[in-house]
Amino acid sequence: MTKSELQKLADEDLMPLVAAKDPDAFEIFYDRHGGAAYSLAYRIVGGRQAAEDVTQEALISIWRGGARFDRARGSVRAWTLGIVRNRAIDHLRRDAGHAPNLAFDSEEQLERRPSQDRTDAEALRRETAREVRGALSGLPDDQSKVIELAYFGGFTHSEIARMLNEPLGTIKGRMRLGLEKVRATLAEGM
Amino acid sequence: MTHPSPDVLIGYALGALDPGEERTVSKHLPDCARCSTELRERINPAVGVLAESVEQLEPPPELRERLMEIVRSEAEAQPAPAPPTRRRRLRVGPLVLRPAAGLAALAVAAAGVAGYLANEGDEGGGGATTVPVVESSAGIGGSLVVAEDSAMLSVHGMPQLPEGAVYQLWLAQDSSVRPSSSFVPDAAGWGTAAIPESLPAGSQVLVSRESGPGHQAPTSKPLLSARVD
Questions:
Q1: Which of B42, B56, B196 sits opposite A36 (nearest CB)?
Q2: Domain ranges in chain B?
Q3: Looking at the predicted structure, is the pLDDT value of residue A111 above 80?
Q4: Domain with CATH 1.10.10.10 in chain A
């Protein structure tokens, strides 16, 4: 299959070719999701080199078949970002002295890259992210905080309860309420 | 069947469960359509939004270059697919394994081997290890590349599976056998699976066909066996 034919494939049809070790298919997979993967890794580990390492580890594990995409479980993007998130949290835990980067609104901390090569797809990705951040910023602080600590910090229910000096049930309840609001926002089409 | 509470499922999706709770949910999900659906259709989409919410950055071009260098070199090193044959019975010649530079020695044999044991051969030239093939009832072959803290099994000739079924990897050492990762081969019968842990010398990797993931012991005779030297 030529590269231009590969580019026309949906993610779900591209992944079996990645699993079959087609480097051109992987290149297209990277071009579609590498930016989101790197951005998420950066958000969690808080440094450029570590974000590169985490992204490389996660995407190579996909290439090598450590995880197999199952279309019944969701989109390729969500599956990929789930793998990146887990690798990034593992990195945080290995780097015991590192404090997780926990603010949603951390744009000023982020290293900017030249924008002249941005494609339309990247522009769309950035726009989507802005909209999603807007939806999340509507959550009450106590709900967004527990979600951030779990998802971006890698802390468990019990660790968060100890950290915030709150009962375990309160932490779980805030997490549920916060996620339900995110879901409701999604259902409204943001 | 006792189902996890919604709070526990949400905690699972956010990675907020203690290891014991997480194992319990992981074991429960493959056998529970209700909880799997709840997770897939209601919880995971909301969690996915978190991943998409971060400020979007352009990754450095060197990252793409490094990744593609690894990917292209590993693609070139893939064993050539077995030539098509009209006969179901196997197969000729030795199975040549290709240990990656700096990696531990390894041995893989096509199976049908009593006691799940692989025969090991002599060292071949050019840094390859050659293993005599034990005759198998299906044209299965492959390689196991063992690194310091993980291993990768690549196989070909795997028969197609019915929906939901998987090829399950098992790690055997001394008298114990425990489950590892699983895979579903592609339409051409190729499959790969990572083993995300160190494989000590003397351990074995077995592959059996199972009705689905989640079994704690093989329910069928292993089709492949690889022993780590």
A1: B56
A2: 6-52, 87-228
A3: no
A4: 121-190
- Residue A156's pLDDT is what? 93
Q: Find out whether B52 and A36 touch, Cβ atoms under 8 Å.
A: yes
Q: What is the pLDDT of residues B65-84, one digit of tens each?
A: 999 999 999 988 776 554 44
At A4-32, the pLDDT tens digits run 888 888 998 899 899 888 999 999 999 99
Distances (CA, A) of B179 to B24, B105, B212, B216: 15, 23, 12, 6
pLDDT at B197 over 80: no
- What CATH number was assigned to the domain covering residues B87-228? 2.60.40
Please state, in angstroms and rounded to a whole number, the distance separating the CA atoms of residues B49 and A144.
Answer: 13
pLDDT at B98 over 70: no
**Chain A to chain B Cβ contacts (< 8 Å):** 204
CA distances, A142 to each of A18, A138, A146, B17 (Å): 41, 12, 7, 19
- Kindly state the percentage of chain A with pLDDT values over 90: 48
Could you tell me the pTM of the whole model? 0.59
Partner-chain contact A65 B58, CB within 8 Å: no
**A1-101 placed in CATH 1.10.1740.10:** yes
> B182 has which bridge partners?
B168
Instruction: Give per-residue burial for B145-184: e unless 16+ CB within 10 Å, then b.
Output: bbeeebbbbbbbbbeebeeeebbbbbbbeeeebebbbbbb
Rounded CA-CA distance B58/A121 in Å is 12
pLDDT for the residue A104: 41
Amino acid at residue number A33: H
Q: Quick one: residue A123, left, alpha or beta (phi over 0 = left, psi -120 to 50 = alpha)?
A: alpha
Length of chain B: 229
Residues paired with residue B227 on neighbouring β-strands, in sequence order: B107, B204
Select from B14, B58, B191 the Cβ nearest to the Cβ of A147. B14
**Selected residues 180-199 of chain B with any CB under 8 Å from a CB in chain A:** 181, 183-184, 186-188, 190-194, 196
Q: A152 vs B50: CB contact, 8 Å cut-off?
A: yes
The CATH class, in words, for A121-190 is mainly alpha
Contact A6, A28 (CB under 8 A): yes
pLDDT in tens, A60-92: 999 988 567 877 667 899 889 999 999 999 898
